[in-house]
User: Which sequence fits this backbone?
């Protein structure tokens, strides 16, 4: 009986019915953040279209995309991995925003607003991944 309960618990911890990513607050915030970055980069220098503009857009686009993809996976372990990729994309985006500020494509106030939102999203995803990690460590 104990073995059966242990197996059922293990299956429950490993499996994850597909989630609707649109129900996650941090997906919605990251999606809106990506849209904002696309708007902001419209005014970047045309010589940056294949440089900083492209890199910033790709990294920010990756954040909600990886959250969505992870939610479509079948296990918490896979979801955790995709959320880690989203966190890495957030760090990349943060770096690109710093370049954007230092190259004067965005001003200090705009940088602060964008960076504050980025940090909030990072905290939300980190908190969620910590909970998943705890579940995975129980196995």
Assistant:
């Amino acid at each position: 009986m104990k073995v059966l309960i242990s197996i059922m618990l293990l299956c429950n911890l490993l499996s994850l019915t597909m989630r609707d990513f649109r129900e996650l607050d941090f997906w919605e915030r990251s999606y809106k953040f990506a849209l904002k970055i696309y708007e902001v980069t419209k005014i970047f220098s045309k010589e940056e279209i294949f440089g900083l503009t492209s890199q910033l857009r790709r990294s920010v686009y990756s954040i909600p995309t990886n959250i969505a993809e992870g939610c479509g996976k079948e296990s918490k372990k896979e979801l955790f991995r995709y959320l880690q990729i989203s966190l890495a994309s957030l760090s990349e985006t943060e770096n690109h925003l710093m370049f954007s500020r230092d190259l004067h494509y965005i001003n200090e106030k705009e940088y602060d607003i964008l960076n504050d939102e980025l940090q909030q999203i990072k905290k939300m995803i980190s908190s969620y991944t910590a909970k998943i990690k705890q579940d995975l460590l129980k196995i």
